[in-house]
Amino acid sequence: MRRMIIITFTLLLFFAAHAPSAECYGEWSPRVVWQAKIGKLTSELQLGPNGLFYAPFGNKLAVLDENGRKLWETTVPGGSKSGRPVFDSSGSIFIPGNSLIQEIKLNGSYGWSFNVCQDNGKSTAQLTTGPGDLLYLHLPSTLYAVDTTGHYKWMVMQWEEGDTDNTQPESGWEILASTGNDQAVFVVSGTKKEGFSLIALSGDGKILWRYWLGDIKGANLVTGKDGLVYATVNYKKINQVNKGAVYAFSSQGDGNPLWSYRVVYDDLTAPTLSEHGLLYFCAGERLYAINQDDGSEAWYQPLSKAISQPSVDESSERIYLGTEDKRLLAVNSQGRLDWDFTLDGKVSMRPLVEPDGYLYVATDAGSIYKIKDEPPVSDGG
To answer: Superfamily assignment of 20-40+120-374 in CATH?
Structure first.
């Protein structure tokens, strides 16, 4: 009997030591619904139009249902890492690889493939949507516009002013970030030697405006309402002149920022827009909230080891982000840390927040978690 008690006690200690731990500072608390092992993602987890979850990892794309069951997995041709998928309303997935776009049907079968014979480096191309319901494939030196049936429309390879006679790809050019809306396509393009610019292009490939960013090492772009685009920019060297920056631009403007906000850090994440008028980003182990209208600071909160782009639950106005030391954080709308929850690996990618209150979190250890942020229990009074 004594031996049985000792064994039982030992097992309880084992499971307690290996279960995810949470430290709660408010009344809400997290609960793991399921955990699935997939592999380290190459871009963030996405919810498709059919209610399934799409997880790019290595040179593959895996699809999971709401219960964490993997339905199918497919390989992106060319042997390169799979990039961020783009979906259309007619039931296709478009995924970039190395100098290609591959159409994949919602059942996992291959559709058309658009390939170009250049830029055969190891980096994965970037794919965005934009004006004219076209797909825009961003390679280091060239931007291709392709329709959703795989037909080539046009390309741009002359990024420098006065360089329109050049018909060869420029060497050493990079595209650090890209996005699009129904008015323009935006790219952060340039060279390490000469610097980078944010460039806006029309749906027929005409350059609308450009804004000089200078000697930077990285940038992130997101689009908002009314044709606005927001950028976070990280400079190679931080000093009194060059500081990490957040910018807001108008698609149809003259290329000058509507406003800017600066911090003395060089690790700004991509910005996250909220329907409640705030823009969130993480930098220097701090979560920042600034006003979308004018770039004024609303608040910031120091958060140890915080590294991921934040996510927002619009119904509760709660913000979620990940840390380098394997934690998922929940912060309320005033910047107070409500809880942190330890997972099995670093959380470097933005958590996916669904309207039903469930969170889907990928770790660098290759796991995907479904987590319920439990509200306070009502006593019925």
So the answer is: YVTN repeat-like/Quinoprotein amine dehydrogenase (2.130.10.10)
* In the chain, domain spans: 20-40+120-374, 43-119
- H helix or E strand, kind and range, residue 16: helix 2-18
CATH 3.30.565.10 fits 43-119, yes or no: no
Q: How far apart are CA 29 and CA 18, in angstroms?
A: 19
Residue 32 in contact with residue 371, Cβ under 8 Å? yes
Cα angle 99-103-108, degrees, rounded to a multiple of 5: 125
End-to-end Cα spacing for the chain: 46
Tell me if 350 sits within 8 A of 282, measured CB to CB: no
Which tens digits make up the pLDDT trace of 97-123?
A: 878 899 999 888 999 999 987 655 555
Q: Tokens for 107, please give them.
A: 């059942």
SS3 342: strand
C-alpha 137/C-alpha 129 separation (Å) is: 9
Cα-only R_g, the chain: 22
Spatial distance between the Cα atoms of 98 and 102, rounded to a whole number of angstroms: 10
Q: Which contiguous run of DSSP H or E holds residue 18? A: helix 2-18
Answer yes or no: pTM beyond 0.90: no
DSSP notation for 131-162: GGG-EEEE-SS-EEEE-TTS-EEEEE---STT
Q: In 3D, which of 101, 83, 80 has the Cα closest to residue 92?
A: 101
pLDDT digits (tens, 9 = 90+) for 37-69: 999 999 999 999 889 999 999 989 999 999 999
Residue 340 CA to residue 361 CA, distance in Å, equals 13
